[in-house]
Amino acid sequence: MIRRPKPTDSEADLLEEQERFLASGTPSTVNVVRRPDKRSGDTNGAQGDQRDVVTIQDLPDELPTLTPAPPKKSRLKVDRVRFEDEDPEERLDRHDTHISAVLSKIIERDTSTTPVSLPAFTGLAFPKVFHRPEMESMVPAAGEKRSIFARQIAAQRIKEGNAPLYFAPESRGQTSGPKVLNLSPESTMEMDQLPSRLDSKYQSSNSTVEMLKIHQENQAKLQAMSNGEILEEQKRLLGQLALASAPQPSTSRDERLGEQRLQETVMIGAKKPEQNPLEPMKCFTNSAKYRTNDALPPCISPEEDLPVKPQKEWVHMDKLEPEKLEWIRDLPAPRRKGTKKAMLARFDFAGTLIPPTEDLPTHLGLHHHGVEPELAGYSLQELFLLSRSQVIQQRRLALNTLAHVLTKARAGEFAAALRGSVVSTLLDAGLLFLLRFSLDDNVEGVVSAAVHALRALLVSSDDEDCLDSTLSWFRGLASFPLLPTAQEEEDEEDEGLPEVLRETAQEKEEKKTDHDVARNDVIKGLLRMKLLPRLRYILEVIRPSPRVVQDVLGVLIRIARHSSSAVLDCPRLMETVMSEFLPCSWTVPASPTPQSAYGLPVANAMKLLRVLATTGRHACARLLNSLGARERLSRLLAPEPSELLLEPEEALRVSTEAYRLWAVAASYGQACNLYTDLYPILVRVLQSAHRPRRPSEPLLPLELHRLQALLTLLTQVTHTAGCHQELSQGDECPPPPPVTWGHVTGLQPTVLGLLKGCVRSLGEPVQRESTLRLVPAYLVYMGAFYSQLSIQVTDDTLGVCSLSVVICLCCVPRCSSAVCNPQSCCPAPETIPSLPGLHCAGWTSAGGLPGPNSPFPLITSLCYLLDTLTSIHRGLVRKAVLGYLRCCGQAKPTLSHWVLRHEHHLLYLLLRLACRLVPTDPEVAKHAALFHHVSLVMLPWLLPGSEYLAHELMATMVFNKDFIPEGQIGGPEAAEMSELRVQEHSSPPLQTLGPLLREACVQLPSVRGCYLSHLAHMEPSVLSSRDFHLGRTPWLNTQLLPELSGPFLPSDWPFLPLVSLYERAGAPDGGGLQVESLPAGAVQSVTHCLQWLLLLEVWREDALRVVLPVAKLARLACIFLCSSDLFMEMPVQRLTWALFRLLTRPSQLEALDLNSPPTGLASFNDLYSALVGQFEAVSFGDPLFGCVILLPLQRRFSVTMRLTLFGEHVGLLRSLGVTLEQLAIPMERFTSPPEDSLPLLRLYFRALVTGTLRLCWCPVLYVVALSHLNTFIFSQDATSQQVLRSHLLLFRLPQKDAELGFNTYDQLPPIRQRRLESVLGTQGTSDSKGE
């Protein structure tokens, strides 16, 4: 027999049972039975022998998809399952609805014996109003639950003199207990007293006679039974009754009446003294009834223990349910203060964390949960459960609460109170799927709450404000995409397969589930869940309130910063946004706060266009031409904001976003024809900016943002106009823009006059703050104008710029610097890798770099203008600037923060100015070393998109001898003297540093060419970055920077030629190639690299402090691994010896940690194994290579490397001939502390005994092995040493029964005595002559 599946069965168990069932051949129980159609009177299907059975034979191998089930069909629907062998004529007759067919199926019944009762006549015009106190006289029979309406009808029938159905009137003297019928055969029964289950419409005219016959038969059977048989039958029936009623909490009225009739039938014929056996049945029945209704009998829970005393007038209180009444008891007191036990986090409806000790009143609605009911607030689990409730208000309340919790969590309000991340916990619990399901709800309120929660999860207002505030800065239009850091996944299934058979990245991505995708990238997971079509449906069909519209647009902006193509390619999404929220015409709203955002321009819709346009020139052209953004710009910018028939604030925001969109389009050389059309309007807006403003004006920040956006637009148009002449002369260049240089020259005097007015107003405290916000935009415009101008500017302009230098360069606060304060760039507490942000929490209101009071935009724009004008100004050497540069030179910033790009611009412009001033100004030249040091530490900081800056620094400053004053004023001689002092206690150097440093300074131009050639693969990135930084708008493809995955140059870039040569020429197993097979110029490239490294190690050691000593040693090891004899070349040998001596200085040796793996390697042990193998193969006993092999064998490093040499490569001990004089490392580092590894001591002893390790072959390790073995043998305590000596000298033979396991001599044997005397007598002689 096949068993039923159990909940604990696995999938394998179910498949095994299925195979067993199919093999047994048992017929399936799945069938379809045709039931008669009661409405048509068809009774053919009711016959037991005529039924149709459908057997399911071929089940599908895969489970069906979990799509929503189709709507349920009516059980009485005419359409049925049809079969091939069914008679069509019979089917047509059965479904015939003609009048003749219908009349032929009418069944008449006899109504002659049916009593007809007319309503009672009354003199009242309207029925009497029913009051509840009148029900006290209408008490139903015990055990019979009847509704108020039924009891009222029954009382009315009693009053009229008619007996009610199944009701015992008081006039007959019957009690309310169990009804006992003692009917005789001659007795008769009225129609309304017959206990019948048949429907009245199926009763025939002789139904009364039939019931009397059945009653008489029952009476005869009961009289023939004894009392024992009656009791046994009662028990059997009661047991069946209990089984039938226990699992069914609610039964129909007919079933309850049937059970009552069954009890009454059981009691027929019993005599009164023999009714005692029914008492157990009554108790059983009552207990079963209470168990079924989930309540306790009154005898168990008296009314005194209840929270309230029930009243008779209360509805549905005739049956007490104590467990439900427990809910109205007073809650226990909250937990006392001072407890150390962790508590479940609970939140109120505003998302505020409620302390567990806070006692809140219950009327706030925060105690309606089952777990810990005494604590106010809801946990995240309870909110999740509440969000799937069937009650609309509960779903909406839960989603709104989750939105508030997310908002406060992302603001960092729970960082100190909660353990763990709220956002990460919610995402792991399935928040994305919950919100996505809620968006599909058919209730608008729930959808609105889900959109609000989705915006709270995805959008950071601080990040958006920071990006908007830096838009008018120098190169502020560019931004990084908000993408999570790509993580390489190792696929074990593809290991060992050829490249053709491996799955592509797209195939692997398609195989991932939505959960896997969302775990790595939240936005990508939402896109895979079809979020964008649903948002379009919400905007297009549901048409929600203005707040929901703003939330949807905010979510779309965040998605556009991740995947702009998905937003543009979503069907009808952008068309809906353009038609509904950026119309070309609209009517004036009836109220100041319109109830709908449809049909009115929305600032966030324009911002969405601007973010999409930032991704590339093709997307921008699509917006302008296909979607009609060009017409919207003309419509929104032609009138003043006050004439747009919108709210004042919204009108200013719309105008500001329109200028920003236009500026982005102009950065590609697009939409410049609008410049000539709207030129008078632009001039008018520009001239109106000079009017004085009070700081108390509410619209002042918005007006400043609008003016900054206008200046950014004019800057981009000026860059485009400056390229017109170059484009007109070239043959293969893009078509020239419609704006020429003559179109923009008229603006320069106006902007210059406004700039002078701003400088003059800086002394007024009232105007100072607003003026400082505008001056950077003015300076950036002037810099762009002069960068395109070939004629020298007048002296008046230089005077203004000099005045600006004096004003603003006097203070460069380091507190606002992101480089000098790396803690300001730390990730927010709720930042997760799958949902990256900009980490700008609180920067807009605090003193961060993008803050309103930050000096960096002003200083950067000023340096940009000075660099453009190539003016000479001594304000650069002010103490504040030099202090800022020194602080930057010592800083260790967070290298992957977006805001560092703006500070890199400032540092680059300062260094560019220094590069121009150092050769001509002696005061500036005094600090050349500081400028050179800052340029070196800045190179590995530069983020993607700044490749042009790195190229310019390398080409003009990094390898410039003017910035290395040590090479010109006796620096090599000083370094040589220092080297001599360091090595007084050690061996003399093979090559002094002085000549090597002088030669390196002479070869600096060649060194620069070497490094630039190794970075030639970055030429496309450098050219793209150059077009961006020089304002070559027609060649610019996108304002979106590359993905922010970290600096594009590694921190160990000075070792780049060595590493690249090893990757090209080195064998993977460590075996080198011949020098003839090395790439051309490899020796020269390695020489230049070593010269540059030597120069940095001697004079710019701080610039290389980011490279750990173990990483330096690993990079130098590439010299020995990439070829068989490259390290034997004389220039390479000399420079490598010098670098090795620098790395083995006492300070460097203390910092050397071989236990931590160097960058790019799993462990140093693997690299050392390759080095040992290479030495054994090709070294020929080279001392330099030998010193590199000996360096990791110091006692404080891992014993694994010493075991590797003495265990696996013991043969190289014959060629490791480094002498003690050649070794620049003190021997104490090899011999102290004593060795405690017994396997290594065993290998030392074996090498010495077998003659593998000899003093003439390997002097250093011979001394090391002797020292450790001597310490191990002769450093034991005196007692153990005496016992060991006696055992060795007096040992005789092994003996099993002896205490020690061997026998000993009583005294030393003569032969051993003579041998001992000979050894002791010759201990002063040396026996090493044979060696």
Automatic annotation (TrEMBL):
The keyword Transport does not apply. One of its GO terms (biological process) is transcription by RNA polymerase II. Residues 345-409 form the RPAP1 C-terminal domain. The keyword Nucleus applies. Pfam families: RPAP1_C (PF08620), RPAP1_N (PF08621), TPR_RPAP1 (PF25766). Residues 213-241 form the RPAP1 N-terminal domain. Keywords: Nucleus, Transcription. Residues 20-78 are annotated as: Disordered. Residues 1054-1280 form the RPAP1/MINIYO-like TPR repeats domain. It is found in: Nucleus. Coiled coil: none annotated. It comes from the Eukaryota. SUPFAM superfamilies: ARM repeat. Belongs to the RPAP1 family. PANTHER family: RNA POLYMERASE II-ASSOCIATED PROTEIN 1. This is RNA polymerase II associated protein 1.
